[in-house]
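Question:
When you can, review this sequence-structure pair and walk me through the tokens.
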Amino acid sequence: MYDEQLGKDAARTLGGFLGETADMQSSVEIDLAGRLESADRYIAELEVAKASGATQLSQLSADNKRLLDLTEDRAKELAILNSVGEAMAKTLNVKTVTRIVGDKVREIFGEDITEILLHDEVSDLITVPYSFYREYQDVEPFTLGAGLTSKVILSGTPLVIDTFEQSLKFDVIALTEAERSESYLGVPIIAGGRTLGVVSVQSYQKNAFSEDHVRLLQALSSSMGVAISNARLFDETQRLLKVSEDRAKELAILNSVGEAMAKTLNVKTVTRIVGDKVREIFGTDVTEILLRDEKSDLITVPYAFYRDYQDPEPFAMGEGLTSKVILSGKPLVLGSTEQHVALGALIPTEDDRTESYLGVPIIAGDRILGVVSVQSYEKNVFNEDHVRLLQGLSSGMGVAISNAHLFDETQRLLKVTEDRAKELAILNSVGEAMTKSLNLDTVIRLVGDKVREAFGIEVSEILLHDSETGLIHVPYAYFRTYRAIDPFPMGMGVASKIITTGEPFVFGTLEEGKSLAPTFHTKRIGLPLT
């Protein structure tokens, strides 16, 4: 019993222990399974994190490489801009600036066509200081309007075209098939808010240009805009400086001519002074000074130089370039013989035909005294500077000639006054002498001698007509000595003509005298006694 009970107790005790052990094992297995699941999940998370880290690392590496490439590109661009900037900073010449930039753009982009085009706001023309297509080209200027360049200038923004077909809507000039480019990139050259022009590159490949190309070309054009603006400012400064120097030279010339003219009151001397100075300054083939005589309406030529000093005959107002300048009162500039002919010029022989002509009126007050002109065998020689200088010289000459004319007129009137005084003195002396005698022969001898003395002539005669006999008596005759001349009948001859007409008679050539009296060999003046 005891053993059986003991066995039962032992069995019960062992069963309990085994039950507890089984429960414990089950609990351990469950805990271990949980732990294994957590480990698997952690390992999976590690794998995901590893994969994500690899991806991020790869992205980071790619970003770093992209940034490195971008930095290198920017560094290259900066180096390009610096080198171009340094080169441009060494010059203030627009042509040199465009050559520097054009060559650098062609080197960087390696495209088929490179051009730099500038807009002249005054003439509204587009010039092409740089053009390279296979070699350097010399392109004629063209008017702002249609085309790609005008589009960029007017919009002030870059223009990218990927195909030739796209360019047709901008009214491009259709070239031959071989010359048609596909891609076009043009960016404005801007300085101080003004669009100076365009720099463009073109390619025979489609879709050749990207935003990077646009950005780089914009940077180059921006630097060039500043350089061109500076160069233009320098050119304008130089131009104004040259204008000032030219004006100073012109003033010196005018002063020297004015001083020389002020020393004389003789028209011939004045025209010689101005003519020689004009010939010296202009260095032209023909120089002339022509004066108009308003009374006779003739044009005289006091100064003419063509290979040597010339003495042209006066000619009538009317046809020719001189008359045109006098009648218009304005300068006339011609560049070719054809223009001369069109205006009715009096064309000389073939060898003497000049091409260029500049004539300016000689003006004093409101009167046009004449013309000073220069001519050249070369075409299109004269410009506005020549016109201005010649006008300055002609103006000074106009005053000098006017003064000389006034002086001549004063001298003439003074001489007239003196002559009248002499005449009055002669008349008074003759009158006094005649009152002292009532003898006709004495009176005639007195008057005859006084006439011979006053006129200083070789031959003097006093002839009296006897109306009853019809004879002409010669109570006074002097030719080297007193002579006695027999009476002769009225009829032919100068004396008979004067007596018949009762009018004075003058002839100044032997031909005129011989037409009336074939035996006459002198110039003669005859007056009737009334």
Q: What stands out?
A: The mean pLDDT is 81. The first strand starts at residue 113 and ends at 120. The chain has four domains: 1-90, 92-237, 264-409, 422-526. The two ends are 221 Å apart (CA to CA).
